[in-house]
Amino acid sequence: MKLFYQLTLLCLSVLFFTSCQDSMERDTETAEALLVWSGEYMVDGCGFEVLINGSRYKPENENDIDEAFKIEGETPVIIEFVRLGKQIDIPCGLSPQSRPMDGIRVLNVRKRP
Which residue among 24, 69, 75, 101 is least crowded, i.e. fewest CB within 10 A of its CB? Predict the structure, then answer.
């Protein structure tokens, strides 16, 4: 009987992890975008912002974006990402104004040829 429960638990674990992986793969998108760097937060900048088809997004994991992209202005990129389904509002600069943007998790980013 104990073996039955162990096998059942193993099967359920495999199904759970497989379904999570499939869900993540379906939610992954790739797009041409502009990666905008506005400076470090501690010097009144607003970090990274991503522009895709006229819409603005805030990467929740902007610290994972390579330092080479920290160039003032817009950099044309190909970006692989997952939409988070929530807004991210990080105060930046001296402005008390709210700047909520749809949140994304950046999986990969490279300069456009």
Answer: 24
Q: Where are the domains of the chain?
A: 29-111
67-102 core/surface letters (b: 16 or more CB in 10 A; e: else):
eebbeeeebebebebbebeeebeeebeeeeeebebb
The pLDDT, as a whole number, for residue 26 is 59
Return the SS3 of 12: helix
Q: 39, 75, 32: which is closest to 54 by C-alpha?
A: 32
- Among residues 87, 91, 101, the alpha carbon closest in space to that of 41 is found at 91
Q: Say what the pTM is.
A: 0.73
What is the rounded CA–CA span in Å between residue 91 and residue 89? 6
Distance separating alpha carbons of residues 110 and 8, to the nearest angstrom:
43
**CATH class of the region 29-111:** mainly beta
Specify the pairing of strand 55-59 against strand 101-111: parallel
What is the Cα–Cα distance from 75 to 25, expressed in whole angstroms?
26
Residue 2: predicted pLDDT: 55
Amino acid at 105: R
